[in-house]
Predict the structure of Alpha-galactosidase.
Amino acid sequence: MTKFMLLFLLLPIFFDSSAQQTQLQLKTTKNIILETADIALVLNVEENKDVNMVYLGNKLSKSDEYTQVTKQYKQANDYTSMYQSAYAASGTRSLLEPAISVEHADGNQSLDLKYIDHKNDISTAGKQHVTIFMKDEVYPFYVELHYQANYQDNIFEQWTVIRHEEKKNVKLTKFASANLNLKSDDFYLRSYHGDWIAEMQPETERLTHGIKTLDSKLGTRTNLLMSSYFAIGMDKTWNETQGTVLLGGLDWSGNFRIDFEKDPQDNLRVIAGINNYASHYALKPKTAFTTPKFTYTLSTKGIGEGSRNFHRWAKNNRLVDGNGERLTLLNNWESTYFDFDEKKIFHLLENTKKLGVDLFLLDDGWFGNKYPRNADTSALGDWNENKKKLPNGIASITKEADKVGVKFGIWVEPEMISPKSELYEKKPNWVVKQTNRPEYYFRNQLVLDLSNPEVQDFVFNTLDQLLQKNPSLAYIKWDCNAVIYNAYSSFQSDQNNFYVDYTLGLYKILERFRAKYPKLPMMLCSGGGGRIDYGALNYFSEYWPSDNTDPYDRIFMQYENSLFFPAIGSANHVTTFGKQDLKFKIDVAMMGKMGFDLNLEELRPEELSFAQKAVKTYDNIKDIVWHGDLYRFSNPRENNYASLAYINSDKSKAVMFNYLTFYNHVFKTTKPIKWQGLDPNKSYKVQEINLNKDDKTIAENLILSGDFLMNIGLNPVLENNRRSVVILLTATP
Ligand code: DGJ
């Protein structure tokens, strides 16, 4: 046969278009539809038993029209009809970024998941839970895809349960929680990077073809350098009130990995889950592995609505006592650091009372005897009161607090261990470290191996004993300052399981703790905002955004946190950081749960009386801030000022916070700021609050309608000598 003849014979293969049209030939046998109040998510089960995610967007009024969705797309070739897979498996037909990849017991790395069945449970509590059961065609390997639609909140939660019946362990080399497929002309990603005292720094970029990954490999304190929470704008214009926006994040406190892959068809695949870095998880036969939840909302009316969805959902489903009350407090960290004794603390209890806040929080430094905790170089793990500082123990402080009439709370960092500690001497194999390499410290400390059940018991018992001995302890601040270096667990037989089992161990402890102490207020602190996620926030009532308490920086950080996390969870303390006056500092702290970390003796008498009055003012508005809806009017990164408001549920009360974030003598807000979210038919009394004694108000006897405030607006008159302005609106009868 000549070369020419061979080419002629092969030509039909080169030009066979059937391979290029597989997507068009797909026959959908079932639509699985999840709906919330406004949004729908549609999955198709194809004739070949593939499951595809084909729609996420506004709910349609005729649900039978979802079957038409895919027919309207004539995109580029999808050679294997896998681009829209609801959970792309690797090693067979899919060559895009996988959601799952495995190494079977026999070493084979192929997986092709096929639909078996699904169930659709709709609860009376407004939750729709769809489970799709899938199995590999060859191996006894099973995956359940879980989708939960929270009807009222427009929030979807997605997770996966993986199990197998192979003869030996299977290695999960990637095991995402979710694999979304989004369609739009363009995708803009707003993600968050940062560092200690500079958390939640946003960056926005247009996503191009290829893969962009957000991840953390820090083990603990995993948001120190990056958050797993992000926003995707899907229209050219996407802002607070306009555009289609997806807000999401992984509810997981360990290493995470979110891949954004703009695929050859120009769709965006979002694959979110635990980071597979150094974690090719060994899964035993007949043992289910449940991934953490990937939580997201879609708003077609801008970011603001997406945030309100997140806040409502978090208050109802995640934060401990999310719709309850919070304790205002005085903390001693920045006023004493490690240098205190019983006498000083008794005095601080008096100051707590004097200031008018609810609780005194004793920070780091109260423990350790052989190695006293007088600096951050020792004693973590030795959770006994230091006899020199507290000769009569915590019990005498709680007794004194009772006498003074304030509550008392305490700091702990139970996951950690100091190399200079009795615990380290007794239990060196409880420590995460490479036994054959030099130790490497983060803040002079190491991490306890929470993947070890014995260590889990130790941590639980530490807290339990503290509370049993001191039942009136009213608050815990749980800190976590170190990342994991030299990751190695003496307990694990397969080091691949360490990172994942560490975080699961942490959750086991917190689960046990919450079973016994369901409502005890507890702050999630991680050397600042190193751990802010809805996996951990399931067990905490509030979080600490940053050790940076300069109110200027806090305006920006609190603003970005507010995209995902509600104000009731944001612990904001007034400290000596920052050159602003006390009013500015207090105004910023009021946008959340207010606390103080100040030496009252260092305040001038007029400052002290201002602070005392501000606590009372806050008591009047905190209900609106904690339980109301947030509307952001001005982003300080886009304008020279920040402006936002909380509005209560019946729209009868609102509080607006405004801050000048631009340092210039002549700049002022020349135009009114338009409100959102008010009742246009209500008339509101406009009052400027938290004013210094001699400050002039812009709102004397002013009554304006919601209609006016939303169409014309209100000018808070921010200028050089009015850098922060708080306005209270009260509907007139
Ligand atoms: C880091 C925290 O973020 C601070 O607020 C303080 O509690 C210190 N740790 C104490 O060591």
